[in-house]
Amino acid sequence: MSIQGVILSLTVLLSGTHIDVQETHPIMKFEEINAQQVSVSSKLSPKQAKAVIGKKATATVEAIKNKNMKQLKTMIHPDKGVRFSPYTYVDKKSDLVFKPSQIGKLPTSKTVYTWGAYDGSGNPIKATFNQYYRKFIYDHDYKNIKKVGYNQTIGKGNTVNNIRKVYPNSIVVEYYFGGTKKYSGMDWSSLKLVYEKKGSKWYLVGIVHDEWTI
Q1: Cβ neighbours for 71, distance < 8 A, ≥ 6 positions apart
Q2: How far is CA 45 from CA 15, 54, 77, 186, in A?
Q3: One-character DSSP codes across 114-128
Q4: Organism's domain of life (predicted)?
Q5: pLDDT, tens digit, for every residue of 88-99?
Q6: Does pLDDT of 168 surpass 70?
């Protein structure tokens, strides 16, 4: 019991009057509440994650395959936009982010963007959207690939995977191309779609490419 509680109890004994004395607890700060809010989405099992996001992921990868930007922009987070990461290490400083209103113009744009840096050489990735799309987004027919991971990592290379650190409250869907016999599977690659929840809806916040790196 606190000192205040002891004093009140003594007062009650001396006065003969009954008073209910309750312990008070410190009010938890907003930051402490946030720190204790464990990410439910990232802890979903593959089966649970698929049940939540499976249909939306299928529609997303189909829109990406067809470059249907009208459909794709409705799936992108209205506030955060979508970040394009050429490798599974998400670089918040260099990876480009586009808002839904900017997505529609990308396929016809002649603008050369710097999308990050190439693995190994460290040279800047300078490309139009279509050039980047062919190399770092839809380099295989992911729409028809059977190996899909929901909240589970399939492809593993040398690059640090920090997706969970950057997107702690997300569901990640990985479309995995296992490579070819010619290169003993070393030419594997993945398209990863990252979703975060806003209100009652899930939105696309990241399009991540992954492959074997040096």
Answers
A1: 59, 63
A2: 61, 13, 23, 28
A3: EEEE-TTT--EEEE-
A4: Bacteria
A5: 999 999 999 999
A6: yes
Q: Cβ distance 193 to 60 under 8 Å?
A: yes
Give the pLDDT mean for 138-162. Answer: 94
For the chain, where do the domains classified as CATH 3.10.450 start and end? 40-211
Is-contact 117 125, C-beta < 8 A?
Answer: yes
Calculate the dihedral angle through the C-alpha atoms of 205, 159, 34, 50, rounding to the nearest 10 degrees. Answer: 50
Q: 58 with 148: CB under 8 angstroms? A: no
Residue 171 is which amino acid? I
Domain 40-211 in CATH 3.10.450? yes
The residue among 121, 165, 143, 173 whose CA lies nearest residue 63 is 143
43, two tokens: 């802890």
